[in-house]
Amino acid sequence: MNALATVEKKLLNVVHDRAVFRRRVRVLSSLIADELGRDGTVLDLGCGDGSIARAIMDRKPGLRFRGIDVLVRETTLIPVTPFDGTTIPAPDGAYDWVTIVDVLHHTDDPARLVAEAARVARQGVVIKDHLREGLFARETLRLMDWVGNKGHGVRLPYNYLSRAEWDAIFEQAGIAVESWRGRLGLYPFPASLAFDRGLHFIARLR
Predict the structure, then answer these.
(1) Which domains are present in the chain?
(2) How large is the average pLDDT for residues 84-97?
(3) Nearest to 114 by CA among 18, 205, 13
(4) 181 DSSP β-pair partners
C-alpha cells in the first residue's frame, strides 16, 4: 500500500470515529445490554476492537465477554481469538449468549454463522444487522459500509438481506425471534432521515 492510500485510510477512520463511531458504540451498547441477562458469559462474534462489548460490561459488570474475529486488531478492549470466519472454535453450549454486531452482511454464508452461534449459545443470540428494504436501501447501506470499514481493511461483499430472508435463516438454525427492534437512533437528525429509517435492527433469538 502506498503512502497516499495509507494517509487516506487514516483520515477516513478519524472522520468516521468523530462523526459516527462514538455515538454508535454508546447507542448500541445500551440497546444490546437491554437484550442480555445481568450476568453470564458472552461470545462477541466479529468483535472488532471490542468497544461495544467493553461498553456493555461497563453497564452490566456481571457479564464476561470474549471475542473472535477473522481480523484481530493490534489493540483490543476484550480478549480476542482469531477464527476462520466459518466455524466457532468452541463446544456446544459454551457460552450463555452470542452477540453478532454488523458482521453477517460481511459474509457469504450468514446462515452458517447464525447456526454456529445458536450451537454454542445456551440462552440466546443477539444480532444487530441491516435490512435491505425501502427506497435506495442497498445503495445507502453500501455507502455506510464503505465509510465505516474501508479504512480497517474489512471485506465488503455488501450481502444485505430482507426480513423474509432473515426469518428463513433463523428458522433454518432452529431459533425463534423473541424480540425485534428497528429504528435504533444511531444517527442524529437530519442524518437519521437517510441513514436510520428501516435499515437497522436488533433481534434477540432463543
Answers:
(1) 3-205 (3.40.50.150)
(2) 98
(3) 205
(4) 202
Position 204, amino acid: R
16-24: Cβ within 8 A, 24+ apart: 16/147, 16/148, 16/151, 20/147, 20/148, 20/186, 20/187, 21/51, 21/148, 23/186, 23/187, 23/188, 24/186
Q: For residue range 121-161, what is the model confidence (pLDDT) as tens digits?
A: 999 999 999 999 999 999 999 999 998 888 878 889 999 99
pLDDT-based confidence at residue 9 (cuts at 50, 70, 90):
very low
Cell representation of residue 6: 495509507
Specify the pTM.
0.89
Full 3-state SS string of the chain: CCHHHHHHHHHHHHHHHHHHHHHHHHHHHHHHHHHCCCEEEEEEECCCCCHHHHHHHHHCCEEEEEEEECCCCCCCCCCEEECCCCCCCCCCCCEEEEEEECCHHHCCCHHHHHHHHHHHEEEEEEEEEECCCCCCHHHHHHHHHHHHHHHHCCCCCCCCCCHHHHHHHHHHHCCCEEEEEECCCCCCCCHHHHHCCCCEEEEEEC
